[in-house]
Specification:
215 residues; Small_GTPase; 21% strand; alpha/beta; six-stranded mixed β-sheet; GTP binding; Rossmann fold; 7 helices
């Protein structure tokens, strides 16, 4: 049987916990990130692997835009970010739909398939799409996906890494090679981008209220 003091302590701790949770939610930052690139480069598999920790079975191509979210604990206890992650279709017929969802993104993951050179060439086109439909200063990470196929057989690599690094240096991109199948570098690359977004956001000068509404 619990004593009156024990009941009081339990209620106090429960109330304190709820207050702390509320503070965390209030302080939680929301960051929008978009996934961009050709169809079948592994964007959706990457997203589901990161958010749910599993690989989807019989994954169908994305129609228009899909959305998932995940809370991310920042390094050094700097807080929590709620990442709103938008997976955009790589199909040209959905281009007008997907472009509308680029707005207000603070970060972008730009994908290509390490085993498909054309998908890398097309990433230059996708980069322009990102730049044309987002605000200046967005952080972009280039993702060379399907690394597992390269490790299985190096001859599968169709994109020269030196060429990729040169492209990244020219366009100020972060680069990482990942595998949605094994999960290699999936969590690390996404959360590194989020951390860069936060640093960039915190360093921006405070704007004076001009009376205009930016939607």
């Amino acid at each position: 049987m619990t004593t009156k003091q024990e009941n009081h302590d339990y209620l106090y701790k429960s109330k304190y916990f709820l207050i702390q949770q509320r503070i965390i939610l209030i302080q939680q930052k929301i960051q929008k990130v978009i996934l961009v690139g050709d169809a079948r480069v592994g964007k959706t598999s990457f997203l589901i692997r990161y958010v749910k920790g599993v690989l989807p079975k019989n994954q169908l191509p994305t129609i228009g835009v899909e959305y998932l979210s995940k809370s991310v604990l920042l390094q050094d206890g700097e807080g929590i970010v709620k990442a709103q992650i938008w997976d955009t279709s790589g199909s040209e017929k959905y281009k007008s739909i997907t472009a509308a969802h680029y707005r207000k993104s603070v970060g972008a993951l730009l994908f290509f398939d390490l085993c498909d050179y054309q998908s890398f060439l097309n990433s230059k086109k996708w980069l322009k799409e990102i730049e044309n439909h987002t605000e200046e200063g967005i952080k972009i990470m280039l993702i060379g996906n399907k690394l597992d196929l390269i490790e299985e057989n190096p001859i599968n690599r169709q994109v020269n890494k030196e060429e990729v690094l040169e492209f990244c240096q020219k366009n100020n991109l972060i680069y990482q090679e990942t595998s949605s199948l094994t999960g290699q570098n999936v969590k690390e690359s996404f959360e590194f981008l989020i951390q860069q977004d936060i640093v960039s956001y915190d360093q921006q000068p405070v704007k004076q209220n001009s009376g205009c509404c930016s939607c």
